[in-house]
Amino acid sequence: MKITDAKVFVGGPGKNYVTLKIMTDQGIHGLGDATLNNRETLPAAYLRDYLIPNLIGTDPRNSEDIWQFFYRGAYFRGGPIAMAAFGAIDMALWDIKGKLAGLPLYQLFGGKSREGAMVYAHATGADLDELLDSVAQYVEQGYKAVRVQCGIPGMPTAGYAVPDKKGNIRNYITDFSGIRPRVEIWETDRYMRYMPEALARIRARFGPELKLLHDVHHRLLPREAAAFARAVEPVNLFWLEDPTPAEDQDALRLLRQHSTVPVAIGEVFNSIWDCNRLIEDELIDFIRVAVTYVGGITHVKRIVDLAGLHHVRTGFHGAPSHSPISMAAQAHLNAWAPNFGIQEYLVLGTPECDALFPCGHRMENGMVHVSDAPGLGVDFDEKESGRYEYRPGSHPVVRLEDGTMWNY
Ligand code: KDG
Ligand code: MG
Q1: What residue ranges define each of the domains in the chain, with the CATH number in brackets?
Q2: Confidence category of residue 348, pLDDT binned at 50, 70, 90
Q3: Which of 160, 267, 289, 407, when mutated, tests ligand 1's pocket best, judged by the most ligand atoms within 8 Å of its CB?
């Protein structure tokens, strides 16, 4: 069996999804997602210029050797661009494997460990009242877990993942006005004073059952993170996400010494080498990698298995930047993983997205039920993709009040 061709598409409804389609001499095709948020043209170029020419003519069933060839063969290893590009190839090869076997992917991993995988939604508000309404809407729709973010009184611009003014629920991740980023101002002291009380009010309003998550988005120093974690302990969070910048694998030691709040980290990691110490030293409770940014299913399974040895559960990244292809890959991993925790879930379900990526995975009452179709269980409508083209966009950048650059 041989790979005969592969194509890359960039575009989509409200997002520059990077979709890889690999064709074979047996009429079976595989799909992968290389969407690196706000840097989408880079993995697309890596795929087109270097990886696809080396892929053509190889046997798609040898997904492990192909992964090793690209990873080791690059010499300059890792990084988000390369790993997103390998990730797309790897997903597509697993898709082909499943289709050849006539089995949904979770069967190739070891079968189902659960019927439905719990997901969490994003509730947000310019202020606490708006956030409480947003949480209430998700609870009404049956969600069992909600991430909560709200504006901080007195902060010159909106905080992470919150609207700039009431009623203005914008796409907080990508600003499509161009590649020059908008600047947001961050004040740690105001955040530290306000947020614990806001979280306590959310807990008081919705009671003990609802799982509450909160994302600090890398903005605190280790000592501040430890103090914040202690302050929010009575709220009983399901997790506190990215309290400190993720690249410092030692930063969480101090937090651990002072608090038992569950910690989730890892959405910016690109390989097992970015998180092995965090996992082995049991400094985190949830690993947040995304199948897209860590080189696909082959590599993410290694991370999941290592995590399982250390009581670390999965909480795969699922921001709207991921296309339904990588969300499908994660749906299969979530169905199988013995150490599954929760899945972030935002993208699926709009009519435009469903038309571009017809998909058999079902969301019901805050749980995703994996499709039984062979392979990934998602397709890609090439004709429909002709409606979309690449639009340049950017993440905001963050500065402190005096102008110092900070972590977005
Ligand atoms: O591209 C950046 C997003 O992926 C990130 O801001 C989303 O933190 C995020 C989350 O938890 O979904
Ligand atoms: Mg996050």
Answers
A1: 3-104 (3.30.390.10), 108-375 (3.20.20.120)
A2: low
A3: 267
**CA 286 / ligand 1 centre spacing (Å):** 16
159 CA to middle of ligand 1, Å? 13
Residues 358-408 pLDDT 10s: 999 999 999 999 999 999 999 999 999 999 999 999 999 999 999 999 999
Tell me the DSSP string of 32-81.
EE---TT-THHHHHHIIIIIHHHHTTS-TT-HHHHHHHHHHHTSS---HH
Give per-residue pLDDT as tens, 191-232.
999 999 999 999 999 999 999 999 999 999 999 999 999 999
DSSP letter (8 states) at residue 109: H
pTM over 0.90? The answer is yes
CB of 267 shorter than 6 A to ligand 1: yes
The C-alpha atoms of residue 349 and residue 398 are separated, in whole angstroms, by 31
Residues annotated catalytic, as ranges: 160, 217
**Cα 235 to ligand 2 centroid, rounded to whole Å:** 19
**Proximal ligand: closest to the CA of 321:** 1
Pocket test for ligand 1, best of 17, 149, 173 (most atoms within 8 A of CB): 173
